[in-house]
């Protein structure tokens, strides 16, 4: 698996926030992804053909940071659809890897990436936003193609 460094400017996201017990995210995130897929046409100024973006913080410092956001990237915020939320991700540097496998094996891809980060003398930013860029979304499929971006210190 190819690992690399990626620097992103500010991202504006619109979608759904999922907050549940830790072991329920595996069930609740696909439900939110399907809901977002069904309602993406309601969101204005969508970028990247509406490809979904997941966002989360490893070590939340406030209740507002808790959970997982299933979103699409937008150019600007305008008339947010009912029941949806906005999230602004500040400019950040990431270590990244492409995961093309079962959703149940995503943890192994993260372990591989975390090992690579440590081996190259970098430090994870546990309070920074981590991003998951879904290349294809089929909420009914167990297979994922997703770019995992783990926040690192610049």
TrEMBL record:
Gene3D superfamilies documented for this protein:
Regulatory factor, effector binding domain
Q: Name one Pfam family in it.
A: GyrI-like
Q: Which domain of life is it from?
A: Bacteria
Entries under InterPro entries matching the protein: AraC_E-bd (IPR010499), GyrI-like (IPR029442), Reg_factor_effector_dom_sf (IPR011256)
Give residue ranges for domain AraC effector-binding: 1-153
Q: What is this protein called?
A: AraC family transcriptional regulator
Biological source species:
Salinibacillus xinjiangensis
């Amino acid at each position: 698996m190819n690992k690399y460094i990626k620097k992103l400017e500010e991202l504006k996201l619109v979608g759904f926030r999922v907050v549940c017990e830790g072991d329920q995210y595996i069930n609740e995130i696909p439900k939110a992804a399907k809901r977002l897929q069904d309602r993406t046409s309601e969101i204005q100024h969508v970028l990247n053909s509406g490809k979904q973006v997941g966002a989360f913080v490893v070590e939340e410092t406030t209740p507002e940071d808790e959970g997982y956001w299933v979103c699409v990237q937008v150019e600007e915020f305008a008339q947010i659809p009912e029941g949806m939320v906005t999230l602004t991700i500040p400019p950040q540097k990431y270590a990244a890897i492409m995961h093309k496998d079962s959703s149940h094996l995503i943890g192994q891809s993260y372990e591989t990436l975390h090992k690579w980060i440590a081996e190259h003398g970098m430090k994870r930013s546990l309070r920074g936003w981590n991003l998951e860029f879904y290349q294809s979304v089929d909420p009914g499929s167990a297979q994922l193609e997703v770019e995992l971006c783990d926040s690192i210190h610049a």
